[in-house]
Design goal:
Layout lengths: L10 H14 L12 H8 L3 H13 L3 E4 L3 E4 L12 E7 L5 H16 L2 E7 L4 H14 L3 E5 L9 H8 L4 E3 L10 E4 L1 H14 L5 E5 L5 H16 L9 E3 L6 H13 L7 E4 L2 H13 L9 E6 L12 E4 L2 H16 L7 E4 L2 E3 L5
Parallel strand pairs: 3-4, 3-5, 5-6, 7-13, 8-9, 8-10, 10-11, 11-12
Antiparallel strand pairs: 1-2, 12-14
Length: 360
């Protein structure tokens, strides 16, 4: 039952997915007792804390149930939900594997449960057309509200989202959106990037480079503004050759790795790198380590997002943390207020936090 160490998804979520797969495939049957927490800890090769977290979430989702002193069993879940009898929130995700949104989902589910709401999840597989279809499907089956986490790089409201706004249907975005009249809960991306760059400068690094997203990636551009603002404030030279862009169409980890390999071949290179996403930073780290460089002696690195794998990287990654738990809870609370007919503010912006580890 080995876990995928290269998968940025937290281990406890991978365990949840694996147990659900075993239930759906018939390997685990309704009413069957699963292994003890100690047995599962050994089988998945993870800590008891990770197993407890996975089991608690599966119980919360009614996938499993526990009998005191006897163990944990597969629950008999209803195959369909009659939405006319339940309060329901639809959650539209572009990619269920995205580690940032996976963390938000957990707090959404927990907070929704407190208010008596069910959660329906749907994955649009990063296709805008499918995302629109999912939204319309949720509307057709009668959900009370929507939480939308789009990975579209066009950070303006789509025509479908604009329709939701015009119809005053309750919804909130948890992915960055520029429109000031669309409901959004998130962090100050530019400030977080400023904090990351400032930390490197104050740590004594004079030439700080930046890894952005591919051309047209507005989140990468937004965080670049914070990077440039810090560089200018501290009167540091901005070398355009030290601003690297991810390969168009490539995933962040692979792009970061490719940039890292290219970085090692440069005659003149920065002594520190801020990457707009942790996955890009981790790919970069892997490449430079494979080329015999030392971190942070040869190059310091800071990422952004604080996904779980950053703590367990070969050189634990300094990063900017977004308060995913608070984002999920606050989004759910505000959406329920909107469902109940109350007015809420359009943009709710939370503060990021610098997490210092060994990469700088």
């Amino acid at each position: 039952m080995s876990l995928d160490l290269k998968n940025p998804k937290p281990f406890y979520l991978q365990i949840i997915d694996d147990i659900k797969m075993k239930i759906s495939s018939g390997q685990l049957k309704i009413g069957e007792k699963i292994g003890s927490q100690q047995e599962l800890s050994r089988a998945y090769d993870v800590s008891l804390i990770t197993i407890k977290k996975a089991i608690a979430e599966l119980i919360n989702q009614n996938v499993l149930f526990s009998r005191v002193g006897k163990g944990t069993y597969v629950a008999n879940r209803p195959s369909t939900i009659d939405l006319s009898r339940h309060k329901t929130i639809g959650v539209v995700l572009s990619d269920l594997k995205n580690p940032f949104f996976s963390l938000i989902i957990n707090s959404i589910e927990a907070k929704a449960s407190e208010f008596g709401y069910n959660i329906l999840l749907s994955n649009s597989a990063d296709h805008a057309d499918k995302e629109d279809t999912v939204i319309r499907h949720f509307l057709s089956i009668g959900v009370d509200g929507l939480i939308i986490a789009s990975l579209s790089h066009m950070y303006r409201a789509s025509s479908t989202i604009r329709e939701l706004k015009n119809d005053d249907f309750p919804f909130i975005m948890v992915s960055y959106i520029e429109d000031k009249d669309v409901y959004f809960v998130g962090t100050d991306h530019e400030k977080g990037a400023y904090m990351a760059t400032e930390h490197l400068i104050q740590a004594g690094y004079n030439q700080v480079g930046y890894i952005s997203g591919e051309e047209g990636n507005l989140l990468g551009k937004l965080r670049e503004k914070g990077y440039l603002r810090a560089m200018k404030k501290y009167d540091k030279e901005i070398n355009q050759n030290f601003i690297f862009r991810s390969t168009s169409g490539a995933k962040d980890y692979e792009s970061g790795y490719e940039i890292g390999a290219r970085f090692c071949r440069l005659e003149k290179r920065p002594d520190a790198i801020f990457a707009y996403k942790d996955l890009a930073a981790l790919g970069f780290e892997q490449a430079v380590l494979e080329h015999g460089m030392k971190i942070p002696q040869d190059v310091a690195i800071v990422g952004y997002d604080n996904i779980e794998s950053t703590e367990y990287a070969p050189v634990p990654l300094t990063t900017i943390s977004q308060p995913t738990d608070e984002i999920g809870k606050l989004t759910t609370e505000l959406l329920i207020q909107k469902i109940q007919g109350n007015e809420i503010q359009f943009h709710t912006i939370l503060k990021p936090e610098l997490i210092i580890r060994k990469s700088c």
